[in-house]
Design a protein that fits this description.
It is built from eight helices and no strands. The chain is mostly helical and 191 residues long. Keywords: DNA-binding, Sigma factor, Transcription, Transcription regulation.
Length: 191
């Protein structure tokens, strides 16, 4: 077990203020830089880093070293707080005047195609290793840069890039195999 993990466990077990101070001094500057890299000002990033580390203090008992490293857990808390903040900002924006205007007509099969595409992506994602799935999720669904992913997962940037490249190759192969099998089924039904 690494030093950050041990510090979090000391906080969880005995509310150890010295362990928290050590964890805070180690992670506050890193979280601030991480959030500034995501477009926050220095003041906003510092506030968010402090909020994230306050959550570490409050939720230390929820940390499970078998599920994630301390760094991943801490960065996930910060990232989730940032996402929550963005959602609140969107909600706070004024509503458009045409809010009650009817939505344009959509072909019935358009919605069905979207649902089928989402299901297909979910099935294809299961063909990836957990590490590849996590990198794809962070890159495409969470919209993190490769550098942010490397920092959040505590892995080298090259590892992020190679996992992403291999994942995309595997997804392409799985998609092509799936498309070929569907096309073969259609041909056999028409014969």
């Amino acid at each position: 077990m690494g030093v950050p993990e041990a510090l979090i466990l000391r906080i969880a077990e005995g509310r150890d203020r010295a362990a928290y101070a050590q964890l805070f001094s180690q992670y506050a500057p890193k979280l601030k830089a991480f959030m500034m890299g995501r477009g926050l000002t220095a003041i906003e990033a510092e506030d968010l880093a402090q909020d994230a580390l306050l959550n570490v203090w409050r939720k230390a008992s929820y940390f499970d070293p078998s599920k994630a490293s301390a760094t991943t857990w801490i960065y996930s808390i910060a990232r989730n707080l940032h996402i929550d903040g963005l959602r609140k900002q969107k909600r706070a924006q004024t509503l458009p005047e045409d809010l009650w205007a009817p939505e344009p007509e959509q072909a019935p099969d358009t919605h069905l195609i979207g649902v089928q595409d989402a299901k297909t992506i979910g099935v294809l994602m299961q063909t990836l290793s957990p590490e590849q799935r996590e990198v794809v999720r962070l890159s495409f669904f969470e919209d993190l840069s490769h550098g942010d992913i490397a920092q959040a997962l505590s892995i080298p940037l090259g590892t992020v890039k190679s996992r992403l490249r291999l994942a995309l190759l595997r997804l392409r192969a799985a998609f092509e195999t799936r498309a070929e099998s569907k096309s073969a089924k259609i041909e056999s039904k028409s014969v």
